Amino acid sequence: MARFAAKKTSKPGDSLIRDDYEHGYSFDTDSYEFKSGKGLTEKIIHQLSRMKNEPKWMLETRLRAFGEFQARPNPMWGGDLSPIKFDDISYYLKPTEKVVKSWADVPKDVKETFDRIGVPKAERKFLAGVKAQYDSEVVYGSLKSTWVKDGVIFLSMDEGLAKYPDLVKEYFGSVIPLNDNKYAALNTAVWSGGSFVYVPKNVHVKMPLQTYFRINAEAFGQFERTLIIVDEGASVHYIEGCTAPQFNSTSLHSAVVEIIVKKGARCQYTTVQNWYKNIYNLVTKRAHVSEEGQMVWTDFNMGSKVTMKYPSFILAGKGAKGETLSMALAGEGQHQDTGSKATHLAPYTSSTIIAKSISKGGGRTSYRGKVFISPNAHHSKNTVVCDALLLDDKSRSDTYPVDQVYNNQVEIQHEATVSKIGDDQLFYLMTRGMSEENSRKMIVNGFIADLVKKLPLEYAVEMNRLIDFEMEGSIG
Length: 476
Description:
The protein is α/β, with parallel strands linked by helices and 476 residues long. It is built from 11 helices and 24 strands. A hairpin with a 2-residue loop joins strand 3 and strand 4 (137-143). The longest helix has 17 residues, at 436-452.
C-alpha cells in the first residue's frame, strides 16, 4: 500500500526546502521522454494529442476546452488563486516510453521515487489493482487476473482511449462538460494519465483498485483524468493517494473525475491527499447515479496551499443514494475550501453530507455545499452535518451552505457546529497521566473517528498516523 503519512526527516545538502514532510524529496531524473515548455498554446495541445495518437474528436475537444479556459476568469470565491502564474507552468512531462506491468521494468529514477513511497508494496499485499502516475503519465500498472477474467477494465485513461475509443467517447464529458468551470476546461484541454475503469454487470470487485499520483517536477501542472463506469448491479471501491516534493515555486494539480453509476450499482471513491504546501489543488469530481444506485465519496484533504474540491452527485434515478464523508485539515498558510454538492432529480432519492474540519496554526477551513431538489424529486431526503474544530485563536472556519428546494414533499436537515478543544477536556485527560500533546491528539482522533472507520484498515492506520504527526507541536 502506498504510504501517505509524514515523518520527521532531514537530508542536508540538497536544494529543496525541507521541513517535516516525508515525501518532500525529488530526483533530477533523465527519464523524461518529452518536456513541454512553459506556458500553454494550441501548438502544445496539438503536439500532446499527436504524441498520444488520439482520435480527431479528442483533439477537437481539447481545443474547444482551451478556448473556454482562456475565456474564463479565476473564480473570485474560495481560496486566493491569484499567485498561480499559468505562463510559468509546464503542462506535459512524459517520464517514460510506456506503461509497464512488472515493477522490475520501471525506469530506475522513477522506481527509486515510488520505492521510497511504498507503491510496490501494494502488489505484495495482493490488492486488486495498482496504477502509479509520475507527473503526466501512468508508468506502472497491474490488475489481478481474477478481475480480468470477470471483464473488469482498469487502465490508464490514455490506454482506455486507445483500446475502447467508442466507450470513452460515449461518456467523456457527459457528467462534467468542458465548459463546467475554468479548471475543468483546463483539464479537458491538457489531460494526461488518470484511470479508466469499467466494471461489468453484477461484478463485485471485492478489493480496492488503487492509484497513486506523484508530482516530481518543479513548476508543473498535473491534469489526470479519471472515468469510472459501474454497470448495473456491480460494485467497486477506488482509492487514490497523492504527494509532491517541496519546491520554492508553486505547482498546480487540476484533476477531473467522472463516475457513472448505473441501475442498482455502487461506487465508493476514496481520496487520501497529502500534497506539499506549494500545491494549488483544484479538482472537479462528479457522479451520475441511476435508479437504486449508490455513490459514496470519502475525501480526506491535507497538505496543499489551497484546495478547492466539492465531490458531488447527480441522483438521476428513483431511489438513488449519495453520500459524502469529507475531512479537511488546514495548518499555517493553508486554506482548505471543501464540501459537496447533491442534486436530486428523481423521487425517493436520498443524500447525506458529513463534513469535518480541523484548523490550527492560523489555517483556514471552509465548508461550501449546495443541495438542489428538483420539482420531480418528491419524497427525497437530505442531511448535511458540518463540524469544525479550532485548535487555537488564530485559526478560522466558515460555512457556506446553499439549499434550493422546489418540492414541498421532502425532508431537509442542516446542522453546523464550531468548537474548540476545551480546557476541561484537557484537564481531565492530563489528570489521567497523559501529556497535553497526547491529550490533544486523542481529542482530535475522536473527532474524526466516524469518518476514518469508513476506510479500509490499512488506510485508517495511515490517516491516524498522519493526523498524529500534524498534531505534533500544535500546543499553544
